[in-house]
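Can't attach files on this board, so I'm pasting raw text. These are the components:
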Amino acid sequence: MTVARSLAFVLCLGACAPGSWPTSESVTTETGGAPTAENSAKTGSAVAEPFAADVPLPEHAEDVVDYTLEAKLDPVAHTVHGTGTITWRNTSEAPQSELWLHLYLNAFKNEKSVFLREPVGSGARGSTLPGDWGYIDVRRLALRGDTPEGAVDLWPQAELHRPDDEDETDVRVPLPRAVAPGEAITLEVTFDDKLPAVVERTGYHGSFHMVAQWFPKIARLEKDGRWAHFPFHHLAEFYADYGTYDVTLDVPEAFVVGATGTATESRVDGGRRIERHVQTDVHDFAWTAWDKFQTMRDTIDGIAVTLLYPPSLEYIASREMASLRFAIPYFGQRYGRYPYPILTVVHPPRRAQEAGGMEYPTLITTGASWYGPPGIHSAEGVTVHEFGHEYFYGLIGSNEVKWPFLDEGLNSFAEQDTMGAYLGPGSMADVFDLKVSDAATQAVGSNYFAHEEPVAQPAYAFSTGWNYGALVYARTAAIVETVRRVYGDDIVRKAMGLYARRWRFRHPAPEDFLACFTEVVGPGASENLRTALFDRGWIDYQVTDLASRRKKTATGIYDHDGRRETVAAAAPSNDRFDGWALITRRGSLTLPVDIDLVLEDGTRKRVHWDGQGDDFRIPYDGNVALEAAVVDPENRVLLDQDRTNNHRGTQASAHMPVRTLERTTYWTELLLQLVAP
Amino acid sequence: MMERTTESPELVLLANDAMRARHRPWMILLVWAWEAVWAFAIAWPVGRMAARAYGTHPDGDGVLFRAGALELGDFFAYGFRALPALVGHVSVLAPAALLLGLLPLAALMASMTQATRDRRAPPLRQLWPHVLGSFTPMAGLLVLATIAIVTSGAAAMALGAAVAGTYAEGNHVGGEPRADWLGLGVTAIGLLAPCFVGILHDMARAAVVRFRVKTVRAIVLAWKAMALHPVSECWSYVWRAVVSWGLVGLGALVASRLGGRPGLALVALLLMHQAIVLSRVALRASWLAKALRSLDSAHSNSVRREAPITWPTPPDKETDIPVHSDEPAVPIPDQGA
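---
Top answer:
Structure tokens for the assembled complex are below.
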């Protein structure tokens, strides 16, 4: 025993809570306890699926805002002329004397926009200036009235930006009179878009046009009468009310159109293609038009899926379609059926790849190189991720600006879960028998960032794009995946399913998400989730000490039955061994964990620790020597900060890393032959 | 007759046909061992890191080969902290291996060109002065070839990318795949230049060893030799390279089947990998022997083939080829060959 180990042992003796010393029973079996969901899940007992029977899916969202628009694309000037009406209903409890409009295309108007001036660090998506500026000019915004004068133009009074800020993405429009709760108003709108060169999510490249955030959009009004309005932040996405979009698109005849909603009308008139798309129960509308699009169609689970892709990319498009054949029913089973009759998938051309990997209602954009080898699953991963957003963004309309982990994070979990079910342990890459899973990548990638910032915070509060990506996407996924592995797949599936069904067509906040876990999994799991999400929760299990020795008779002087007996040292037993393993837990999370005691003959003895207390000492007594201890042998706790300290063996059991040395030496030999003489 | 007898007290030059790699198996083994030792030294810290991370795990570093790659990911994350030290280690050892590797290479080539008077492979101690004398011009060749290969390779790739980009931008028939194939084709054609430089480099090395000339003169001799039979020389190089990398591909397939299994599977993998490396060394030696023969043939009219090899002797006044000041020259009076 080294000095350090001895010191650790002594310190631990003083620090161990009495309850953390296991009884002999608890060494050999998992700890018992009340048959709560947490315990039953741990033992793998089946949990009845609640889904459709317990939580009926709402058929429709509350209809708050309806857009009826006509849009005409000029593919040479890259402009869109729009006109139409917006009908908005005050569904809050307070009268409203102003409206907030989002003109997010103005994010690309100049370098003083919030989007372009926010320092997100290099490497973040959209961190370069657009090659061509983009903006939206509202020509007219008139309130239809019942007065003889007709509509009242509100635009002259609109506050395009704040006095000390030139960002023009968040506009306040005073109303001539307050709109009472429950009252609806209709606005007539005319606007002109100049699309930017594709910079992020939107824009053009050549004749390819991805038209998103392209119309004056009313911000969401919360129930308490407060507007949830935001400038277009660099790292943030969107938040809006549900409603019906009825949009008529006018593009050159040769162009193929993909858009949110079902095409209810399609005709060619005077060299122009006119398509009318209508969709209820959505909170945004995006469209694309390109004269080079190829089309692939399929019907999956009753949903008409259209995949638009560049010429000669059939191979990668077929892989994307195949991933949807798995994902659509899988998501339906997990989170409730997909309610819309259509799904459009857009694979942008490579030069417009900034438009790829984005979600809009019933329309997603994906992307991957055409030559991606079959073992590299980026095409499948992006497609599944973006489809997942149809749930975690589309159907569950959380505030993406304020709580991005609720859409990106939970969707990353759903993505890795789906990809794992679809492609197994090589869900991210499966090359030359190297199988890399999506879940492992997210866990390893995010552990490094665990202490940087809280996961649950507004998108614009993250100090860098790296932190945002690692914490919002990967860390959230690793947190929920850890809960799934620790408390059980069935029960976490049930909790996630409950959340997705209960909050369909609504706008949940983090507490609503946590409440589902409290209700289904239990308060322990929920508290761990809260700590991990809000308080930079972390955990690190460690086998701090391991002792193994031949059993000896206890020596010394003993008074037995009035007689004093001196027991002298005797030779250690040859067939009895004792020892212990000391497991410590650092960090603010308290997660139950398994520990394997590995004996000299290779057999393993599993012990369960509820994770309470700072440490856990496991005594050993048996006829085979204790050789090693392994914490979390099945890698359930993905959040473990350092898995390299999750095991400890006796010195005699130390292995030479022969596999590693063999391979690295071989690869180095090849490399030397390549570059050396 | 495999070898020519001479009046040399120690070594004689071999006849053209006698310069064969298969006659020098021990030298091939020596080069393989040299490479293996350097590779092991470079790889050792990675092994230590694996030992530190998983040495006492019941499954040892076998955990790094588990499906899903969680532990492998951790290992890389863990190793990331040690990256500066690792880079420092590699950046010292790799260039040293690169440069000092010229010594066994020169020894291999020298041994293929010469023999003892009793027709045996020359012992290293007798080759040593020749090897040392070859080092400086070969190092010069290495620097020049590296510059030429990197420059021409980068130019080829840039040209290919530009062609692909231009084609894709025009939205021509075939789309991105055709653009990329076009770019790849241009790059592949462009990469013939660095390949040619590599072949010329080896020929020049052969000239250094065979004729003990300096860097520039070696290039001239190599160029002239290649100019005589360019297709034949390139093909000799190419088929061996194809076989050589084919072996690597085959090894990768077998390794993927064996995975991280311990015991006999690991021993089999080790033997297979080292057999591949050894085969590649042998193929390379075979190519270098061919280069030596080509050089010899190209300049046969001007070479006194039975020139004795003795070290040290004064420079031969008859030669017009620059020679190492401290080494004898093999006389090559006529440079028109």
